[in-house]
Design brief:
It is built from 10 helices and 29 strands. The protein is α+β, with helices and mostly antiparallel strands and 458 residues long. The chain has 4 domains: 45-145, Thrombin, subunit H (Beta Barrel), CATH 2.40.10.10; 159-261, Trypsin-like serine proteases (Thrombin, subunit H), CATH 2.40.10.10; 267-360, Pdz3 Domain (Roll); 365-457, PDZ domain (Pdz3 Domain). The strands form 6 sheets. Strands 23, 24, 25, 26, 27, 28 and 29 form a 7-stranded antiparallel sheet that branches. The protein has a 6-stranded antiparallel barrel with strand order 3-4-5-8-7-6. Strands 9-10-11-14-13-12 form a 6-stranded antiparallel beta barrel. A hairpin with a 2-residue loop joins strand 1 and strand 2 (36-37). The longest helix has 14 residues, at 248-261.
């Protein structure tokens, strides 16, 4: 399964046919049949499409080359001229104007990530330079801004009201061709576990979405924004009828945080959760079609203060149905720090309502000399849900290493990710403490950049 995001080149083959026979004159389609107007989406699209823009970006990409080319002696000896270290890259995508007065445009994080210059082209051909307000890699949502005035904004719909089978229209810039409209239906709701982003709650649609549509609009037949197109499954490189959009309700919450803070400040309840399996459902004597089980409650966390306990089954959060552990993570991940939350749970088969206030996420930290003298001078942190590394690697972050310390002499560097100690996987600072005590040698597996290393400390 291949998730297609980058722009692909399209080759158009023009075929000309010579016709010697006289061509029949085709009559124009009637405006109505049996007194009824023909169905058309044109009036709605005339109102909606001016709010969907094309986005072109310019960035610099580092070139991979042989390390010998960085050696001045090697270059001098072989008379090799200086080689470029980077090249310019261009890409295209789409965006949606959501605030005409202030010029806010919603798009995908991956559309503008690393861009040095962003040019927005309106449907009437007018080009404007945009600046980045902020973005959230975990949800792939970004907000950029263009000069306000003479813009058309797309109203946001309540994506919670979407149903499978609703008609939707995708508007974007596929393959860089320019604004294109395709139609289809909502194929599924609440798609998670695809590995596209850290926070997933996708609308699935068969409306044709192709590379370049990223950041474009998915609208309902009232011309309201129900989602931001973000990814497709395309084994052959193009649309096969499986596309995904970020729901407008999620976009709205994230947009407000990005505009206010430049980023998304995610809170946490302080729990570990797991899916409600049929076996657990049978043990709890409840249906297995929804809910997430609290596996662990962190001490002094928001969940502990609210009275959540291990074994509780969370059914709803603020009237939002919780289907599984991913659904619960998404629901909490959309809440701001300090926001009130109501949890409907089952405890020992009995319904219970608890109230909590989402706490600010503070990653667990540890100092090296508290773990092992050979790690003195290093400072470690858990990889939290708001970290760009979340969901991409399992391990513990080396946050800092003091120069000249035992940890530095052993070869540890800031931003290393320790994945195993003495052949035991670690995913938290607590794991570091358990796996490193009482051993003659420390075998440390770590990830550094794109490579993996093994350090042996004695």
């Amino acid at each position: 399964m291949t998730m297609q995001r980058p722009l692909l080149s399209a080759t158009l083959l023009a075929l000309s046919l010579t016709i010697t026979l006289p061509l029949p004159v085709l009559a124009a389609l009637p405006a109505a049949m049996d007194g009824q107007p023909l169905p058309t989406l044109a009036p709605m699209l005339e109102q909606a499409t001016p709010a969907v823009v094309n986005i072109a970006t310019e960035s610099r990409v580092a070139l991979r080359r042989n390390p010998l080319l960085d050696d001045p002696f090697f270059r001098h000896f072989f008379n090799i001229p200086d080689q470029p270290r980077e090249r310019k890259a261009q890409s295209v995508g789409s965006g949606v104007v959501v605030d005409a007065q202030r010029g806010y445009v919603i798009t995908n994080h991956h559309v503008i990530d690393g861009a040095e210059k962003i040019t927005v082209t309106l449907s009437n051909g007018r080009q404007l330079t945009a600046k980045v307000i902020g973005s959230d890699p975990e949800s792939d949502v970004a907000v950029i801004q263009i000069p306000g005035g003479n813009l058309t904004a797309l109203p946001l719909a309540d994506s919670q009201r979407l149903r499978v089978g609703d008609f939707v229209v995708a508007v974007g810039n596929p393959f860089g061709l320019g604004q294109t409209v395709t139609s289809g239906i909502v194929s599924a709701l609440g798609r998670t576990g695809l590995g596209i982003q850290g926070y997933e709650d996708f609308i699935q649609t068969d409306a044709s979405i192709n590379p370049g549509n990223s950041g474009g609009a998915l609208v309902n037949l009232r011309g309201e924004l129900v989602g931001i197109n973000t990814a497709i499954i395309a084994p052959g490189g193009g649309n096969v009828g499986i596309g995904f959009a970020i729901p407008s309700n999620m976009v709205s919450r994230l947009m407000n945080q990005i505009i206010a803070h430049g980023t998304v400040r995610r809170g946490q309840l302080g729990v570990s959760v797991q899916d409600l399996t049929p076996e657990l459902a049978q043990a709890f004597k409840i249906p297995a079609d929804q809910g997430a089980v609290i596996a662990q409650v962190s001490p002094r966390s928001a969940a502990a203060r609210a009275g959540l306990k291990e074994g509780d089954v969370v059914l709803r959060i603020n009237d939002r149905t919780i289907r599984d552990s991913s659904s619960l993570r998404n629901a909490i991940g959309l809440l701001e720090v300090g926001e009130a939350v109501r949890l409907d749970v089952l405890r020992d088969g009995q319904p219970l309502t608890l109230n909590a206030k989402v706490g600010e996420y503070m990653p667990a930290k540890a100092e090296g000399d508290d773990i092992d003298p050979r790690l003195a001078g290093a400072f470690f942190e858990d990889i939290g849900p708001s970290s760009p590394l979340s969901g991409k690697v399992q391990g513990v972050l080396v946050a800092k290493v003091d120069s000249g310390s035992p940890a530095a002499r052993a070869g540890l560097r800031p931003n290393d990710i320790i994945t195993a100690i003495n052949r035991q996987r670690v995913s938290s600072t607590d794991d570091l403490r358990r796996t490193s005590s009482g051993d003659d040698a420390l075998l440390i597996n770590l990830v550094r950049g794109q490579g993996e290393l093994l350090l042996v400390l004695r």
